[in-house]
Prior knowledge:
Layout: H1 4-10, E1 20-25, H2 31-45, E2 50-54, H3 61-65, E3 81-85, H4 88-108, H5 115-133, H6 138-152, E4 158-162, H7 166-201, H8 208-236, E5 242-249, H9 252-267, E6 272-280, H10 288-300, H11 307-336, E7 345-350, H12 359-367, H13 376-382, H14 393-404, E8 426-429, E9 442-450, E10 455-462, E11 465-472, E12 476-480, H15 498-506, H16 511-519, H17 521-532, H18 537-541, H19 547-557
Parallel strand pairs: 1-4, 1-5, 2-3, 2-4, 5-6, 6-7
Antiparallel strand pairs: 8-9, 8-12, 9-10, 10-11
Helix pairs in contact: 2-12, 4-5, 4-6, 4-8, 6-8, 7-8, 7-9, 7-15, 10-11, 16-17
Amino acid sequence: MSLDSLLWSAIGRNNDDLKFVFVGGKGGVGKTTSSSAIATLLAQHCGKRILLVSTDPAHSLGDAFRCQFSNEPTSPGVENLHVMEVDPTETMQRELNKWAELAKEIAVDNDNDGGEDENDIVNKIKQFQEWLSGIPGIDEATALSSAIEHIESDKFDLIVFDTAPTGHTLKLLGMPDILQAGIEKLQGWQSTLWGYWDVVKGLGSSASKKRLRAKEDVSEMLENYRKGIQKVALMLQDQRRTRFVVVCIAEYLSVSETQRLLRELKKNEVRASHIIVNQLVVDSALDKEELTELEGLAEVGNLMLNQELLSKTVHACQLTTARKCIQEKYLRQLKSFPETQDLDGICEVPLLAEEVTGNDALRRFADYMTHNPPSEAESALKSVNSGPRRLYDDQLEKKSSNDMGSEEKKTEEGVSSLWVPTKGDAVKIKDLAKAAQYNGLEGVIVSTLDPETNRCGVRIEYNEKSKTLALQLKNMDLLHKAKKAKSSGATAGSPSNEQPMSKAMALMNDPEIKALIESNPKFKDAVEDCISNPMNFMKYISDPEMSPLISKAMAKLNV
């Protein structure tokens, strides 16, 4: 088997529109060499502008091509191919620098003439930057999101990702959900934070317009994160544009890890197309019968060879035959897995005598992966440069519309929102694996989302009894939002935020909240700290010890 079908997909056969190829697997199995060879094949046979990107913190593409690469696309001397080694940490740092600039603007907007207050605000924004950078996976997601921009801008036609080892890849698959939850928290955080700030500082000052612009900038940045994260999720699950190629060797550890990875890919609806099995000696080594015959000839001295040379020859053959037996066993096992039955192919690559580094060696290595690639004429015929385009924007708009329903298309800050469960929302239960008897039932949200468990209470009727389930967002479809009473007064995000702010301040007099604060000296100190300076709220939001108070307060604000 070969990677021919991958090349044909790249030029549009079977209505495919291949844009992204992820190459992953256990460390030390030739993943980087394979991704470099795949990128070389695509550049050579498909007439496409290929970008090879490493998101592995331990970059080695430079070693594979014997070139130096940076976070800017650089040609390794192969036509139609550019390579870049993305540092996710550096990418994230650029985002954090934007917040630093915003902090300066807010500080300048302060009613006082700078001084200690200005420094205090900057310090609080820095605390927020640290919290943002601590969201699991946000650096990798930001790097992947920026890679999509290379396709949208028409700089490149196809991107090959040399990913980090399997553990990081599995983290990548769960990243969109984690980050989406994180961004929801950020959006809720910024809404509440600005409210507290407005209560204490007021928005009637001469700086109110600048502060309002700063608030809009925060909302826009969070919305851009949300869209970028959702695009990464759509990219990973795009059956027409994305393929995942798994690299392994025919040994127990690697084959077992490959099976687990394939299961996770399928569970997350990521299309795995090929497996590359590297370093095989299956075809070149002696089989057991041939080795026995050689050993017999050597034992009786029928070979006219130097005895030392003969001994080394027999020993070398014993090693390769042993490896052949091991590899044949695990290759058969790999091919028998249920997870490999729907793949486009398992590509078997022999163990080579040469070191595979440099353009020429990579081309020779790549030749083992293909048998009937597209010809230059076929690639030219199929390849159409459609120019700049936006990927997934139509799906995001449709998703946003479906999630919001017709009632509400904006959040309090005037930005498109993900559905956040509210008491009274009607939902339908879905995708429960161990409690499938509840799937398809309709229920009502009775308690808001718990930030610790990421679950909310849903009351249903089952077997003529009322029952409350604690469900995650992924196990619910919104049927319709709770009906909201019309209210007068200013809308959230406008200079006058009286209604939500009076509600927030009323929390201090709520009996439950009051009792909770009095029961814990740390809660009491934190509340006093936030009242003295609302920006201090950010340093408590990720503190697990503060979770009971924050959860209870946010639940009451959402009533």
